Fold this protein.
Amino acid sequence: MLKYAMLGFLNYRSLSGYDLKRIMDVSTTNFWVTDLSQIYKALKSLEADGAITSSVEAQDDKPDRRVYTITDEGRADLQDWLDTPLTDVTPMKEALLLKMFFSANADRQQLITQLMIQRELHKGMLQTYQGQTLTDIEQNAGFMGATPEDALFWDMTRRAGVLYEEMYIAWLDETIKRLRGRKRKQ
Amino acid sequence: MLKYAMLGFLNYRSLSGYDLKRIMDVSTTNFWVTDLSQIYKALKSLEADGAITSSVEAQDDKPDRRVYTITDEGRADLQDWLDTPLTDVTPMKEALLLKMFFSANADRQQLITQLMIQRELHKGMLQTYQGQTLTDIEQNAGFMGATPEDALFWDMTRRAGVLYEEMYIAWLDETIKRLRGRKRKQ
DNA sequence: TTACTATATAGGCAAATGCATATATGCAAA
DNA sequence: TTTGCATATATGCATTTGCCTATATAGTAA
């Protein structure tokens, strides 16, 4: 799936691995997070498959960069994936909920502290997503060779981030309240 | 992480791999989904680590089963994990949002259909979570050797499932509306 | 009788993931 | 002068995952 994310961006314009990491950090963090080493690995693999080609570009103030360009084959791969409807939902992996599930015997105060830390983290992400205006997104899209129409879709995914973080914070608040309402064990 | 989920359940009582799959299907689906073969692999690995032991149990109406029991070492591992506070958030991987992000040129009607299919799926999960009463959960807990206190924590994670599905449906409705409000491309 | 379903365990294998590490350039700050 | 940071690419490696397949028992349905 990471490969399609990368092909999606390379479909707008040619980019280096480092570029891909940066653009994903600002525009897909709320639904697709990855790590630089995985991007480089996926680039190798995509090039081996013939979905992209690369060439080295010299820079005088910065290290050389290898710039990747999507091929017709890559474009076809991307289109196939986009055209295939999803018939299932992405399964969840939420470490915090897993811990909560088994935390009946944990110290209540420590648990609450842990949930408060999570609240801070989610609050921060919420503010990040809320702070991105459509104008910001259109500007980003412009830099990437994407259109204002693309920006509208990017904004829809941003909204999902906002709703998700608001929901998460609401759950944390509710849960902290429930924990406070219960006397500590023994 | 799957290993801790399994140790968590085995901490309540001895179980087979098949049992673990069944209990996880009804109680952790909204935050931890896994597949039978992964459970069996993790059991092998946990036994090799000394965290659990096993013995074969004969049944006359059903195939033999291998029942796993947590060891003191396993209990200590679990406790260590429970005691370590999470300092980050679980990164997201949401295939639908990734597709949406790159779907500006897709056929609007097809997109809406796709979102409606997702809506049905999420609606179904919401109803499942909403249908689980505290009494149901306490009963499940009882079968598993867990206490009513444990059931309260299980219920907190169930609530997260309800809020998540409600949020997801709200986002789908909002997005469908936005797509309907825009004329089809060309 | 045959096929299917539930119960039960497990191996194979490719791909993805996570995390650490190595290398190198050029700039700015301490 | 040295340290750190941003830029830039890449490898190694163990673990996890996803998914498919094989095997076996027993009961039920067609």
Remarks:
- The beta strands of chain A are 15-16, 52-57, 65-70.
- The helical segments of chain A are 2-10, 17-27, 36-49, 72-83, 95-101, 108-131, 134-144, 148-181.
- Chain A has a mean pLDDT of 92.
- Residues 1-2, 34-35, 37-38, 41-42, 45, 59, 61-64 of chain A lie near DNA strand C (CB under 10 Å from a C1').
